[in-house]
Design brief:
Length: 266
């Protein structure tokens, strides 16, 4: 992969630092919320995710994260490996009881990984963060927790801290912000939502221009800026459902912008 030019780095930094936000930037609130869902069996299940290898070492580090609600820097193999494997869980394919357990484990794992992406010492481990993000969105929706504010707070904190090689992922973070912000119309008024929609379009265009560094071959809207499209179908499904997040409190301009983004993605 070709290195980013200084101009591309500057553009990335400018876009990331100007992400719209009406939420406090805090990486801990969602971590606390998802950690509080787990029992001892959940932690042991996550710790065994690598075919049972090094279970005790993974478990000890997971217990520390839950107890302290903060991450070691850097986040090392124990427990990163089992968190990354848990991220790929497919709870929706399981029976209801099993699905709920997997959903909370996946939500916690994805949250820890996303928090870790904001630490420069973990920069090399954050490639394709949109895949972690969409797994988080799906898990939280399945759990029905009502943690929109906590997610928005984490994303507001994380976006300016994403490493430069994740520039192609930024539009996905904007789309996730839009998904959750639409559920908080009293906190995100029409002007703020329109600003977020515009920001998503700008970041998508910037990501698409980075094709010269070897990213993006599909040409599809949003997906064209990333080489990590394992879960593109889940993002497209999210796009089709964006309009379902609208209600009577959203004005016609917001409705039009959201419908456009959803249609372009889907």
């Amino acid at each position: 992969m070709t290195s980013l030019t200084q101009a591309q780095i500057a553009e990335f930094q400018g876009i990331a630092s100007n992400a719209p936000s009406l939420s406090p930037s805090d990486q801990h609130s969602l971590l606390k919320a998802t950690a509080n869902l787990l029992d001892e069996d959940d932690l042991r299940s996550i710790a065994r995710a690598d075919y049972g290898n090094d279970t005790d070492e993974h478990l000890a580090r997971l217990v520390d994260i839950v107890r302290l609600c903060e991450l070691p820097s850097p986040l090392k193999w124990h427990p990163r490996e089992v968190l990354e494997l848990t991220r790929w869980s497919e709870p929706q394919q399981q029976a209801p009881g099993r699905a709920a357990r997997l959903s909370r484990q996946c939500a916690f794992a994805c949250t820890v990984l996303l928090v870790s992406y904001g630490d420069p010492r973990n920069a090399g481990a954050s490639y394709g963060s949109n895949q972690t993000l969409i797994s988080l969105v799906g898990s939280l929706e399945a759990l029905g927790l009502g943690v929109e504010d906590e997610v928005l707070s984490l994303l507001s904190w994380l976006i300016p801290r994403l490493p430069e090689h994740e520039a192609g992922e930024i539009p996905f973070f904007g789309l996730a912000m839009l998904w959750f912000a639409l559920g908080r119309p009293n906190q995100w008024n029409d002007a703020a939502l329109l600003g977020l929609c515009e920001w998503i379009m700008v970041t998508e265009e910037a990501a698409k221009r980075r094709k010269s560094i070897g990213l993006g071959t599909t040409g599809s809207w949003l997906v064209s800026g990333t080489g990590y499209d394992t879960h593109v179908d889940r993002w497209q499904k999210l796009g089709r459902r964006l309009v379902d997040r609208l209600d009577m409190r959203h004005g016609p301009d917001v409705r039009e912008a959201v419908q456009l983004i959803g249609a372009m993605l889907a």
